[in-house]
Each structure stands twice: as C-alpha cells, then as structure tokens.
Write a structure and sequence with these properties.
Length: about 300
C-alpha cells in the first residue's frame, strides 16, 4: 500500500493524524506485511482491500499495537508511538479499536482422555467460533491431492494455496480414529507443511479454536493467540476412555500410553526438540479433573477477557 502524498521521513502535515512508514510484520519465516507506507489525515475515509489472508487484520492490529511490527514506524499526531504500556494504552484510547482487529485463536494441546477436545469444542460453541481438528486433515488432503487417509495416519500420530481456507473448512466431515497400539511415529515434513499453511491462514482470517497440530508452536509470538494445555491424573483419563470408547481398562491404558507417546514424538520432531508437556509453551495448564470441564471453559474465557480479546 503506497500513498503518493506521503512526505519524507521526519516531516508532517499539520492535519496528519496517523502515519505509517515501511511497516513490516513477520511471524517466524512467514512475512505478512512488507514495507507498508500510508498516512491518514483529518476527515479521511480509507478502505483496506485485499484477498483473504493478505494481512488486512494484521495491519490494523499493528496500527493499534495489538501486534508489534517487525520493522517500521507508526506516528500519531506527528510523534512516534511510545513503547511503554501506559503510552500504548493512551494512544489506543484516542484511536479506538476496529472490529477487524478482534480475531483471536485459542490452541489446545491435551493428554488422551483428559477431555481436552471436549473443552475445546465447548469453548468454541460458547464463543460462537469454529473448532478445528480433523477437518484440517481433510482440507490438507484436498490441497495436496493425496488421499485423506494418509493425513489421518500422520495426525499427530505417524509420520500453496492462498486464502479461503476458513470457508473451505466449513462443512468438511470430522472423523474419529484411534492409534493402534503397535504403530510408531514416522515424520513427514511435506504433509506437516500443508497443515501449517492452513493453520497460519486460519489465524489470519478468523477467530477460532485449533486442537493439536503443534498450533501453539506454529503461532507462537502472536499477541492474539492463547495456548492451553489440558492434563489430568491417569486414573481419570482411563475412566473417561473406557466410558467414551467402550473398552476394557487394559485397552484404555494401552491407548492412552501409545497416543500420548505419538503426540509427544510428533511435537518434539516438528518443534525441533521442544517437549509437549513443557508448561512454558502455554499460557495456561489446567487439570480437567480438579477444575472440571465447564470450569475449564469458564477460566479460559476469563483469561481471554483479561487479554482484551473478548468482551
């Protein structure tokens, strides 16, 4: 975005309210904005147009300092924005918050049998947003041209298209598949990359909940992302697994042990050595037995309010 009337750096028109110079933003290796220049004068009405995933929301979030730009400067009434939280809050109170800036993502990692997926689904339902898990596999299959079963196999277990992912996900089927006790983790970087593209696009285009898929790692560093880990005592997980799957205690124990090992190996490989249960990875770690399913949902919503992501 270029504004032909923008003046050289350090000089301003008296009626210039906001000015952006060479604003750039990257999330890891993924560059969303590159050297954006424009100014807003008193009485101006400006529309930001672009395809889904082009960075419109990220630009607005940077202007409002809900995201910190990687490079570039933002000026308000001729003065560069301050860095302290007090200065930022004062600035926000004057420029207001745009509804476009309210996209947020809640990522979930969970032990098998903890009820993490149920908590994620309930949270999404109460917030009125989508919860994505196995539908990511379906869409990744469509993008790659490979059979969906290949992706199901690597769904935290075994081994480019632009924009529109969010709308493509709607209506895609969900599936349940449990890990066989004799399966082993085998990495597949190509399949993971498709899932990563989808997660990055979802974060750009809508508020949503994403379960698993190393989403906390993929979206790390974003101010509008809250990462949650759900844990519970083994006895509690065994009981829930027996009830939900209709299996014996022996099968439940084996399923929990093997599934959690798959998830741990998957996470370690794709995060380059990090470990899945590391509390530093997450904003919140909740014990679903002690806290309760519904109270976990309530606590996460309270934290979203503290972060200013929901009302």
């Amino acid at each position: 975005m270029k504004n032909k009337e923008i003046k050289p750096a350090g000089t301003f028109d008296s009626d210039e309210i906001i000015r952006v110079e060479e604003l750039s933003k990257s999330f890891g290796e993924h560059q969303v904005l590159r050297k954006i220049d424009f100014s807003v004068k008193k009485g101006d009405v400006i529309c930001i147009l672009g395809s889904s995933g082009s960075g419109k929301s990220t630009l607005l979030r940077c202007i409002n300092q809900l995201e910190t730009q990687t490079y570039g400067k933002i000026y308000f009434n001729g003065k560069e924005l301050g860095k302290t939280q007090r200065e930022i809050n004062e600035y926000r109170s004057k420029v207001g918050k745009a509804t476009e800036m309210r996209n947020y993502v809640v990522t979930f990692a969970r032990g098998f049998g903890t009820g993490g997926k149920l908590i994620a689904s309930k949270l999404a339902e109460e917030l009125g947003i989508h919860c994505y898990e196995n539908r990511i596999l379906t869409l990744a299959s469509q993008l790659s041209g490979l059979d969906r079963d290949v992706f199901t196999e690597v769904n935290e277990k075994l081994r480019t298209s632009k924009g529109g992912f969010a709308s493509m996900m709607k209506g895609l089927p969900r599936a349940k598949k449990y890990i066989a006790r004799n399966e082993k983790f085998v990495s597949d970087d190509a399949l993971f990359d498709y899932q990563k593209q989808i997660i990055l696009n979802l974060a750009e285009t809508e508020s949503c909940v994403i379960v698993g898929k190393c989403a906390d790692y993929i979206l790390q560093g974003r101010d509008n992302v809250v990462s949650v880990y759900i844990e519970a005592p083994r006895d509690y997980c065994i009981k829930r697994t027996m009830e939900n799957m209709g299996v014996t205690q022996e099968v439940a124990e084996a399923t929990i042990k093997q599934t959690d090992k798959f998830r741990a190996d998957y996470y370690e490989y794709y995060t380059h050595g990090n470990y899945w249960t590391n509390p530093i990875n997450y904003d919140m770690t909740l014990n679903s037995e002690k806290v309760g399913i519904d109270n976990c949902v309530a606590l996460i919503k309270d934290y979203l309010r503290i972060k200013g992501l929901i009302e």
